[in-house]
Design goal:
- There is one protein chain.
- This protein is an alpha/beta fold.
- 34% of the residues lie in helices and 18% in strands.
- The chain has helices spanning 3-17, 61-72, 87-98, 108-112, 123-137, 214-219, 221-228, 230-241; strands spanning 43-49, 77-83, 116-121, 142-148, 160-161, 165-172, 185-186, 193-199.
Length: 253
């Protein structure tokens, strides 16, 4: 069995076990990219950190997730984290990676071969949707968006998933001063599958976030808790890996 189906099953197991997704609600696999000659572009995973956090701040869950994916996929997958203010930089990286003949422009075939997953926390969740919306203007499909306690930025609505996105998931918590968006919806339900809006509660069982500033641990305890929660990170990783090619076997095996 291909690894993508294994990780899809792992993700669905998590959701069913938590009682937030029924077995019949599994996400569709989606259409295969159009046939096209030449070398395929890598699968692309883009992450966005929240607030004014640096893209390489290793205490944050989204940065740790990207590092783990790079370790598991040393080739064939492009993984990069950006500050949420740098969505255009992420878009330019995507356009460059999809331009496999290096002629400076994307053909319809090159666009349809895209295999892109975008995720983000807080303002990074909002930028996840913003980037997907910009890619829609470019005519580029997105396999999946994942928002983690998404907080809407001034320059876009993070509640409506554009129609170029095949699947979308939303993880949120609803306590404290900073609260994530409780629900996302598809601009076109016929084209986008909303995997679910998954609520987590940290009021009784908070998650510790070592290394975070004292003010975040006091005033944003649940908001950062969901980013540090290993249950959430495991589920997000399982969803991402369900859309990636099978990783190359370790050397010597």
């Amino acid at each position: 069995m291909a690894a993508r189906f294994v990780y899809k099953a792992i993700a669905m197991f998590f959701f069913v076990g938590l009682g937030i997704l029924s077995p019949g609600a599994a996400a569709s696999e989606g259409a295969a990219p159009a046939a096209f000659g030449g070398p395929p572009p890598p699968a692309i995973v883009i992450g966005f950190v929240g607030g004014f956090i640096a893209r390489d701040s290793a205490i944050h869950g989204g940065v740790q997730l990207a590092a783990h994916l790079r370790e598991k996929y040393p080739s064939g997958v492009f993984v990069k984290v950006f500050e949420n203010r740098n969505g255009e930089e992420a878009r330019q990286d995507i356009l460059r990676l999809l331009d496999t003949d290096h002629d400076g422009k994307l053909t319809p075939e090159e666009k349809q071969r895209a295999r892109i997953v975008i995720y983000g926390h807080s303002w990074g969740g909002s930028e996840t949707v913003n980037l997907a919306r910009e890619l829609q203007k470019d005519g580029i499909p997105v396999l999946m968006t994942i928002q983690i306690d998404s907080v809407q930025k001034f320059n876009g609505d993070d509640s409506v998933i554009p129609a170029n996105v095949l699947q979308a998931a939303n993880f949120y918590q609803a306590s404290g001063l900073v609260r994530g968006r409780p629900a996302i919806r598809a601009a076109d339900p016929a084209r986008t599958k909303i995997i679910g809006n998954f609520k987590f509660d940290y009021t009784q069982h908070p998650v510790e976030c070592p290394g975070f500033p004292w003010y975040a641990r006091i005033f944003e305890k649940s908001h950062i808790g969901i980013e540090c929660d290993p249950r959430v990170l495991d589920q997000v990783e399982a969803l991402i890996r369900s859309e990636l090619p099978e990783p190359a076997p370790a050397s010597g095996t």
